[in-house]
């Protein structure tokens, strides 16, 4: 098991933002974390990596999170936050290379695969032609892809990404989901928060639906993205269909009150 959380709770101002969440992510899974704004998704993801203080327990590869050094955590899980800002004039190649830092520190042998891994990560995200550009000159979508490449270069068994498709055009959104699927074939896993229910239905192997700080459904996309759940959690109606051998879900209107 790459990630396990037990009774994870985050309180702020006497209110539970995340309330008693249990979840697991095994090898070869693309787990989509879905739910409306304010459901607690971002807070949960930050608690899972120790950025946000929480009660309960988190285990990375069966090791308690609190017992791992920052460097050890960074070798087990890469985190891509919502914020895609890069405020300093650093070359794109150097930004992506930051993903190799956990493997350089405390290693007397160096990081011999560094150059190849960085090149492969950039190629996966289609940013190799931007290598010599400074990051502060990039568009929002380009910055997002560069930061995803940095996370890929970290070469961790688990990647956690918070709304990584935000700011990407449809082609790059689909391309990113294809990259995530390719990681599964390498025995790695991805936990990704998504607002696009169509992408979640079509690409994820499993979905975790949150509402009000808790998990309301966890299972295969077809079992989670039901008309009843969409009405109860999102307050919407949706079209359900199939195309090119996969599911299609498109929100159509607000549910009658």
From TrEMBL:
Listed Pfam families: ABC_tran
Organism whose genome encodes this protein: Martelella mediterranea DSM 17316
Keyword ATP-binding set for record: yes
Protein name, as recorded: Hemin import ATP-binding protein HmuV
PROSITE patterns: ABC_TRANSPORTER_1, ABC_TRANSPORTER_2
Enzyme Commission code: 3.6.3.-
Gene3D superfamilies per the UniProt record, alphabetical: P-loop containing nucleotide triphosphate hydrolases
Family: Belongs to the ABC transporter superfamily.
GO MF annotation terms: ATP binding; ATP hydrolysis activity
Domain of life: Bacteria
Alphabetical list of SMART domains matching this protein: AAA
Function according to Swiss-Prot or TrEMBL: Part of the ABC transporter complex HmuTUV involved in hemin import. Responsible for energy coupling to the transport system.
SUPFAM superfamilies xrefs: P-loop containing nucleoside triphosphate hydrolases
Residues annotated as domain ABC transporter: 3-237
Presence of keyword DNA damage: no
Keywords: ATP-binding, Hydrolase, Nucleotide-binding, Translocase, Transport
């Amino acid at each position: 098991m790459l990630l396990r959380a037990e009774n994870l709770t985050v309180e702020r101002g006497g209110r539970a933002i995340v309330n008693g969440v249990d979840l697991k992510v095994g090898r070869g899974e693309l787990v989509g974390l879905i739910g409306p704004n304010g459901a607690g998704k971002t807070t949960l993801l930050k608690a899972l990596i120790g950025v946000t203080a929480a009660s309960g327990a988190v285990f990375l590869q069966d090791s308690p999170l609190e017992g791992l050094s920052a460097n050890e955590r960074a070798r087990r899980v890469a985190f891509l936050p919502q914020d895609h800002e890069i405020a300093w004039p650093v070359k794109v190649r150097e930004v992506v290379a930051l993903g190799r830092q956990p493997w350089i520190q405390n290693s007397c042998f160096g990081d011999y695969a560094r150059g190849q891994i960085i090149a492969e990560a950039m190629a996966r995200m289609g940013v190799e032609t931007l290598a010599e550009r400074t990051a502060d000159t990039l568009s929002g979508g380009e910055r997002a892809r560069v930061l995803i490449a940095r996370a890929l270069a970290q070469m961790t068994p688990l990647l956690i990404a918070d709304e990584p498709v935000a700011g990407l055009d449809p082609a790059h959104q689909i391309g990113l989901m294809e990259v995530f699927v390719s990681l599964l074939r390498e025995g790695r896993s991805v936990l990704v928060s998504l607002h696009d229910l169509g992408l979640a239905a079509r690409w994820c192997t499993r979905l975790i639906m949150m509402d009000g700080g808790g998990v309301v459904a966890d299972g295969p996309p077809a079992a989670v993205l039901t008309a009843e759940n969409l009405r109860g959690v999102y307050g919407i109606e949706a079209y359900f269909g199939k195309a090119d051998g996969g599911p299609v879900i498109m929100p159509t209107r607000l549910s009658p009150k």
